[in-house]
């Protein structure tokens, strides 16, 4: 028996932190979606679970680090904290609701300056 013929691929050079690396890229590399930075004004569920407690309501001012909701998953109560200072524009979940990973929990707006 003969070995299956492997496609002859060219090595590519990746430049990372000042160092060049020669490597082969997997077949599905081109199909992989590009990284998209999450929107800091839309906190999301980082794990599937149930909303145990909602601490904020629409129009409420929050400061970075304030508790927004408690997400219960795998018998653990996880705090979802405000990523920045702002105002709660809309709360999308309620207590007892099941959420999926990546689901938006609420919308925040940038806090307006007193002059505006």
Explain the overall architecture:
The chain is mainly beta and 116 residues long. The protein has a domain at 49-110: Beta Barrel (OB fold (Dihydrolipoamide Acetyltransferase, E2P)), CATH 2.40.50.100. Helix content is 0%, strand content 38%. The protein has strands spanning 12-16, 19-23, 49-54, 61-62, 67-73, 76-81, 86-91, 98-99, 106-110. The strands form three sheets. The chain has a four-stranded antiparallel β-sheet, with no helix packed on it. The model has no long low-confidence stretch (mean pLDDT 87).
Alpha plus pi helix count: 0
If strands are numbered along the chain, what order do they take across the biggest sheet?
6-5-3-8
Number of strands: 9
Q: Which whole number gives the mean pLDDT?
A: 87
- List low-confidence stretches: none
Rg to the nearest angstrom? 22 Å
Shape: elongated
Approximate strand percentage:
35-45%
What's the N-to-C terminus distance?
Answer: 78 Å
CATH class of the domain at 49-110: Mainly Beta
CATH H-level homologous superfamily name of the domain at 49-110: RNA polymerase II/Efflux pump adaptor protein, barrel-sandwich hybrid domain
Kindly name the structural category.
mainly beta
Query: Order of helices and strands, N to C?
Result: EEEEEEEEE
Here the CATH topology of the domain at 49-110 equals OB fold (Dihydrolipoamide Acetyltransferase, E2P)
Helix content: under 10%
The biggest beta sheet is recorded as:
4 strands, antiparallel
CATH architectural label of the domain at 49-110: Beta Barrel
